[in-house]
């Protein structure tokens, strides 16, 4: 399998991914090669060649319907890119600060103690169930 960075380095492939992302929001049927050709104004053989690379990298899925093929974006492999890029945009201190901020006010002390107790009880029950083979 080609390195994901090498696959998305090509601008035509990035354009195809963008078209698929936009069209996936509009339809669940997928996008045909001819629709991609029409959006990008590139030749059908060029689009087909790039779709094969994207398919081999797991970035698109294909559904066959007779002689027609319909493509959809599979964004899951792009998480590798996201994981690699995030440290360049967010530092650990920022993440820690955001994690400690809450949209809700802190729980009162009795509720906090109860939640901790409930969590410990759940862990004990889970361990007991595992021992029993449940």
Give short descriptive properties of this protein.
mainly alpha, WH-like_DNA-bd_sf, 134 residues, three-stranded antiparallel β-sheet, DNA binding, elongated
Please tell me about this protein's structure.
The model has no long low-confidence stretch (mean pLDDT about 85). Strand 2 and strand 3 (about 70-75) form a beta hairpin. The radius of gyration is 24 Å and the shape is elongated. The protein has about 130 residues and is mainly alpha-helical. The protein folds into two domains: about 5-80, Winged helix-like DNA-binding domain superfamily/Winged helix DNA-binding domain (Arc Repressor Mutant, subunit A, Orthogonal Bundle); about 90-130, no CATH class. The two termini are about 40 Å apart. A three-stranded antiparallel sheet has the order 1-3-2. The chain has seven helices and three strands. Helix content is about 65%, strand content about 10%.
Alpha plus pi helix count? 7
CATH topology (fold) name of the largest domain:
Arc Repressor Mutant, subunit A
Strand content: 5-15%
Spans with pLDDT under 50 lasting ≥5 residues? none
Query: What's the order of the H and E elements?
Result: HHEHHEEHHH
Oligomer: single chain
Structural class: mainly alpha
The coarse silhouette is elongated
CATH architecture of the largest domain: Orthogonal Bundle
How many independent structural domains? 2
**What can be said about the biggest beta sheet?**
3 strands, antiparallel
Domain HTH arsR-type: 1-93
Keywords: DNA-binding, Transcription, Transcription regulation
GO molecular function, one term: DNA-binding transcription factor activity
Organism: Microbacterium sorbitolivorans
């Amino acid at each position: 399998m080609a390195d994901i960075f090498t696959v998305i380095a090509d601008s035509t492939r990035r354009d195809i991914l963008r078209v698929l992302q936009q069209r996936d929001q509009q339809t669940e049927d997928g996008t045909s090669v001819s629709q991609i050709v029409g959006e990008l104004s590139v030749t059908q053989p060029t689009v087909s060649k790039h779709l094969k690379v994207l398919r081999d990298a797991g970035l698109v899925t294909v559904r066959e319907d007779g002689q027609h093929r319909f493509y959809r974006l599979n964004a899951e492999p792009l998480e590798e890119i996201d994981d690699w890029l995030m440290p360049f945009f967010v530092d650990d201190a920022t993440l820690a600060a955001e994690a400690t901020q809450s949209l809700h006010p802190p729980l009162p002390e009795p509720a906090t103690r109860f939640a901790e107790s409930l969590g410990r009880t759940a862990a004990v029950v889970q361990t007991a169930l595992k021992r029993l083979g449940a």
